[in-house]
Each structure stands twice: as C-alpha cells, then as structure tokens.
Predict the 3D structure of the following.
Amino acid sequence: MGSLNQIGEKNIIKLLQPYLESVKDSEKNEDAFLYTSRPPYRMINVDTMSRYSDFLPRQTYFQIGAKLVTLTFSDLAAKGATPDFFLSSLVTDELITTFELEEIAKGIKKATQRYRTKYLGGDLGAAEEAVFTGIGLGTIRKGTPIPRNGAQVGDLLYVTNSFGLTSIGLSQLLKTNNYKNQIKITEEIGILALKALYEPEAQIKTGQLLSKYSLASSCIDSSDGLAISLHWLAQLSQKGILIEEVPIDPLLDTQIKSKEQKLHLTMFGGEEFELVFTVPIPKEEELIKRLSKNNIFVKKIGQIINTEGVFTNYLGELTSIPRKGWDSFSKSLYHEI
C-alpha cells in the first residue's frame, strides 16, 4: 500500500468506502448526503481547506473564509438543496493573528448572508498547520435530490457558465508556467483569473431549479476540475460521455487559436464550482425556458453514450480525456486521479 500522495484521491475514496454507512450504496460516492428519506429532504455536507493544499498565494483571510462557505454549499447545490445553516471548525496555526481570525469570520458571515443562510458557530482549535472545515445543512422542499448516477444513453450534457480562467490563475499562482509563451495573459485576464479563484460562487439557484422541475438525470459540481467531474458521472452511471464542444471562457476564446489549448484549459483546471449535469432530451426545451426566465444561461457540451469512459471529437478525431485535475494529496494541478 502506497502513501496517500502516491495513490491519489480516487483510490483513497475506494479505500474508505467499505466503512461508510450511507443511506444507500449509491450515496457512498456522494459529497452531500441525505439524512431524511421523505420530503422535505434534509442534506448535510462537509468540506475542508488547509494551508498546505488550499490556501493560495496573496489570497486574503476574508476570501478564505468566504470560499470555505462556497465550497461547502457547492455540493448542496449539485443535489438541488437550499442551504439553511453553516457551521465551522477553525483550527488555527501560529501564523494567524487575532485580526486575521476575525477576517475569516467576517468572510464566512458575508458569504452566508449572500447565500441567505445562517452562520451558527462551531469549534476552535490550534495545530501546527491551519485547517478550516465547513459543515453545510440544506433542504429540498420542492423536488427530489439529484443523483450522480442517473445519466442514461442519449441524455444531453450541460454545464453552468464557462471554464478556463481558474487554470490560468492556478498556473500563475503556483508558478507551473503551463501556458507561458502560449497564451497572451492580458491584465484583464489576469484579474479575472484571480477573482475566479479567490471569490467563486456556488450555483445554488440553478441546482434548485434542476431539482424542483426534475430537469436533470445526474449532477455534480466541478470543484476538482471538469475532466474529473465527467469521469465521476460516467463511472457512477456506468455509461460514457462524448464531449462535442468545450465551454471555454469567451475572453480566452478570443485569445487562443489552438483547440488543444482550449481543451486543456477547460478540462484540467479545478476550483470552478460550476454544475455539470445531464438532461433527458424531452426535458431540454423546459430546461432552457426555466433557466432563461431566471437569467441563468447554460451550455450544452456533449451527450451520454454507451461506451464507458470520457471521450471527445472536438479536435476532429475521437480521443480519450484522461482523469486529471487538482489533487490536494499530491498538491498537483494535473495529477492523474
């Protein structure tokens, strides 16, 4: 048995699954869990940030506090739940001052207000490294929880918003230089890339509508990267995915000529917190109508196929998309997971 940073997150999940007592077997591959079996459905989620794997250079503690709320609520959004309450465990290290701790609390409070929920408090501790944990409680009052494993052959694949900016931002901040001399990083792109990383938004309203009107057959958030999210949907549904378009950010689309670079930027970033979901064809018209009415615009990028795996014909020929993205255990941007 290898060390955790050698085996990667996917195999760590597999290692722990036999010990889980989820409501159903299928929920052992979920991040948010159902704890009532009848409506209104109550859900819970836990997520963590640590100095080692998640704090970014030049990110303020206010932004870290707010982002802790977003990443916790993003998994609730993918189930269609409305966040109700937020609790935190703030384990600080000697680098954090009283001023910075208060900034974390202010960031959490601001974010919970933005998501129209309540910050109840939690636990405090001290350790050699700062570790912040968020617990989110949510409810589905109208609709049912959206599974990760419900995709069927022929379903259409959609995403919220666009991808690519976080790839640029992570490359700059972590000094991987993956796109050096390949993409002209204008001042505007640089600012937007950092904002996308420092101040993401959970897609709560979209998830609510998908659940309320039974528009999605499966759904997941893209916090670990689009490629990994696609692989999870395909694996859990025991189906395949064919990517026909890439949801590249419009600003990057005008700057980049290479289709290979566009594909790489959209697939292998992470930290986007967008929703990736499948829609039965008879539901597509209603999906567009319901979301447009709420000023929500989504992009169709592919479909569900019979052959297991994730593939694309975007480059002109059928190629396989590897399961790569951000892995906190190896602290690697393009680690095989």
